[in-house]
Amino acid sequence: MAEQAAPIPVPAPASQETQPLQPGATTTGRPATAPALTPAPVQRPPAVAMPAGAPSTGSLLQTILALVLVLGLLLGLAWFLKRFAPRAMAGGANVRLVGGLSLGGRERIMVVEVGDQWIVVGASPGRVNALATMPRGEGAALQPPAAGQPAAASFGEWLKNTIDQRNAN
C-alpha cells in the first residue's frame, strides 16, 4: 500500500529550555526564593484606523477657520461697498420730503417737493395716494400766518389750513 510519511520534528521555541529544571532553580537562573520582578508587558489597544475620506481634527479646525475667514471677508466687502459706493440717482429726480404727519399706527400724510411743486401724499400699507398739489412754498407757507389768521400749532393744522385756503380759491 502507500507508505506513511515520517513525522517532521518541530524544534522547541527559544524561550523554553530543553533541559529539565532542577529543584530550586528557575528559568532565569535566579534562586527560587527571590521572585522575578520583571514588569508585565503593557498591551496597547489596537489603533483605530480612520476611514480614507474622514478628515482629522486638525484639518477640520483648519476648514472651519477658513470658512470664518471667507465669511468675514464677504461681510467686510458688503460693508465697504455700502459705505463708499457711489449712489446712483434714479433718473436725476429732485425729490425732497418737506414734512409729514402720522395719522395712526401705519398711516401718514406727507408733503413731498418735486421740482417746483409740493404734493400732499397719503400713505398707508400697500397704497400711496396723491391728495393735493400746490406750487412750491419757498418757506412762505411755513411762516406764521397773517394777523387775520390763527397761528397753526402743528404741521397738521398748517396742512388743514393750506388745503382749506386752496379749496376756497
Task: Explain how this protein is built.
With 169 residues, the protein is α+β, with helices and mostly antiparallel strands. It has a domain at 95-168. It has two helices and four strands, in the order H-E-E-E-E-H. It has helices spanning 57-84, 155-168; strands spanning 95-102, 108-114, 117-124, 127-135. A four-stranded antiparallel beta sheet has the order 1-2-3-4, with helices on one face. A hairpin with a 2-residue loop joins strand 2 (108-114) and strand 3 (117-124). It is rod-shaped. The chain starts with 56 loop residues before the first helix and ends with a helix. The relative contact order is 0.06. The mean pLDDT is 75.
**Computed Rg:** 49 Å
Poorly predicted runs of 5 or more residues: none
Helices and strands: which structural class? Answer: alpha+beta
Shape: rod-shaped
Q: Order of strands across the biggest sheet?
A: 1-2-3-4
Number of helices: 2
Q: Report the strand count.
A: 4
Mean pLDDT, as a whole number? 75
Keywords:
4 strands, about 20% strand, about 170 residues
What's the short story on this structure?
The chain is an alpha+beta fold and 169 residues long. It has two helices and four strands; from the N terminus they run αββββα.
Topology at a glance:
Layout: H1 57-84, E1 95-102, E2 108-114, E3 117-124, E4 127-135, H2 155-168
Antiparallel strand pairs: 1-2, 2-3, 3-4
